[in-house]
């Protein structure tokens, strides 16, 4: 009999694996609905939806292995990273989905959230003030007008699966919707700056690398508190705090 493996769990959601089936349990039923809708619309490889009975979504496992993991060197080939860039470009060129996603927050909303999180990091002694200030200055380059595209919204490197040099699937679409294209490219390469050139080459369009780097700082500053409060370690080698330190 297949074992039940706990993939990830926190107060908002949990994912279990039983053989080749993943069961996602989410307190926010609307988030699961977004995921199902996005996978149906996305013109890129996605997991097969086996069934959806709120608050549970059952999906089939994707073949291959993750492109990489935050905090670890990626063993995937440059061609695989370029293929990831090309796949993201195909998504961004698709017709817009009906919803605004995580990557679609407005400039004013992001600026306000950045101010709150930076103040929390310094006031609570989580990070040194100079580290926060430097990254906040860098992050502000992401606060600019952008044209909406179909974004994944949480395109972490371990959400992209490869086999050889090809992309077999992209998972975890609960944050998908209209958003900033460079947000997706930044999240994909967060903690893997040496792979940015391969991704951009596969993406095949002129992109502002300074804005991608700004999103690295923005994402890390905004995520540290959430990670700490949900039992994750942003101070682990190669993770969010190291990303922030690399900007000094």
UniProtKB/TrEMBL annotation:
Keywords: Kinase, Transferase. Residues 41-207 form the Aminoglycoside phosphotransferase domain. Pfam families: APH. One of its GO terms (molecular function) is kinase activity. Signal peptide: none annotated. InterPro entries: AGP_Transferase, Aminoglycoside_PTrfase, Kinase-like_dom_sf. This is Aminoglycoside phosphotransferase (APT) family kinase protein. It comes from Nonomuraea rubra. The lineage of its organism: Bacteria, Bacillati, Actinomycetota, Actinomycetes, Streptosporangiales.
């Amino acid at each position: 009999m297949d074992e039940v493996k706990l993939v990830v769990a926190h107060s908002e959601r949990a994912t279990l694996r039983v053989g080749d089936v993943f069961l996602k349990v989410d307190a926010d039923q609307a988030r699961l609905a977004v995921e199902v809708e996005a996978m149906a619309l996305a013109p890129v490889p996605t997991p097969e939806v086996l069934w959806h009975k709120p608050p549970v979504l059952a999906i089939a496992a994707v073949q291959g292995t993750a492109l990489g993991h935050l905090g670890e060197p990626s063993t995937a080939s440059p061609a695989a990273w370029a293929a990831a860039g090309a796949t993201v470009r195909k998504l961004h060129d698709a017709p817009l989905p009906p919803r605004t996603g995580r990557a679609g927050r407005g400039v004013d909303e992001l600026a306000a959230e950045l101010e709150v999180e930076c103040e929390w990091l310094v006031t609570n002694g989580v990070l040194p003030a100079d580290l926060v200030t430097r990254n906040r200055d860098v992050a502000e380059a992401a606060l600019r007008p952008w044209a909406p595209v179909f974004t994944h919204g949480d395109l972490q490197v371990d959400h992209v699966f490869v086999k050889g040099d090809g992309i077999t699937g992209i998972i975890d679409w609960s944050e998908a919707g209209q958003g900033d294209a460079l947000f997706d490219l930044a999240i994909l390469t967060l903690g893997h700056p040496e792979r940015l050139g391969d991704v951009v080459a596969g993406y095949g369009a002129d992109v502002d690398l300074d804005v991608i780097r700004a999103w690295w700082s923005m994402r890390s500053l905004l995520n540290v508190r959430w990670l700490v409060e949900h039992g994750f370690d942003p101070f682990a080698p190669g993770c969010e705090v190291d990303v922030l330190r690399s900007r000094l």
